[in-house]
Amino acid sequence: MRFMFVGDSMTIGRAGDYTWRYRMWQHLNATFGGPYQIVGPRTELYDTLADAPTSHEYADPGFPAAARRHLAGWGEGWQHMAPLIGPAARAAEADVLLVSLGLIDLGFYTDATQTAVNVRRFVAEARAARPAIRMILLPVIPNVRAQDEAPFAAEVARFNELLAKAVADLSTDASPILLAARPASYDIHHDTYDGTHPNASGEHRLAGEFAAVLHQAWGIGGPYRPEPGPQHTP
């Protein structure tokens, strides 16, 4: 089975991060019980000094190169990934997409309605490339801008409603789509390093939501239990 992580800055991570992708890799290693691959056209982290995705300095140097693969980008959202997902999924023969997108769209590019249109385009492009592909989509999670700006919070809430509707409308037996839960009690003061991007605690919470859907809905892997070892994210 081939898993592809798709996301924005919270998924690609910055130089020195572990990333929730790393936490998910640990989880799959511990619970999957069979062969699997993490796939995607990119492996880099975002380098804040270079202002570009050029870093390979993961917090754990033992994170295998093959497990670092993803389709995520700093400042990239649904509208950026919709035209990329078809070629990426086809080339990697992806079976399951784990998708965390939306905040960057609403913050800089599109309103809730247009972002939801791009979600549907993304799904169509993924299925055109891989008709039996499965997808788990994460709603936009709590962030500092939504805390501080009531109109933006309303737009996030509206988008999350539209995302849930898209999942209900588009999921099929041949290509199921599921909606992950917003992490319970996600605290931007405890689970992020800047009000938006996850620290170690936040990484585990994000990975845990994807893991819960995989296990409960499709019997993939097991319950999420954070792996022992390095937990700190700078």
Mean pLDDT: 95
What is the CATH superfamily label?
SGNH hydrolase
Percent strand equals 5-15%
Low-confidence stretches: 229-234
E-strand count: 8
Q: How many separate domains make up the residues?
A: 1
Order of helices and strands: EHHEEEEHEHHEHHEH
* 3D shape: globular
Write up this protein.
- With 234 residues, this protein is of the alpha/beta class.
- The chain has one domain (2-218): 3-Layer(aba) Sandwich (Rossmann fold), CATH 3.40.50.1110.
- 43% of the residues lie in helices and 13% in strands.
- The chain has helices spanning 9-12, 20-31, 78-92, 103-109, 112-129, 144-148, 150-170, 200-218; strands at 2-7, 37-39, 45-47, 52-55, 71-72, 96-100, 134-138, 177-179.
- Strands 1, 2, 5, 6, 7 and 8 form a 6-stranded parallel β-sheet that branches. Strands 3-4 form a two-stranded antiparallel ribbon.
- Helix 2 packs across helix 8 (200-218), helix 3 runs parallel beside helix 5 (112-129) and helix 5 (112-129) runs parallel beside helix 7 (150-170).
- It is globular and about 45 Å long.
- It starts with a strand and ends in a 16-residue tail after the last helix.
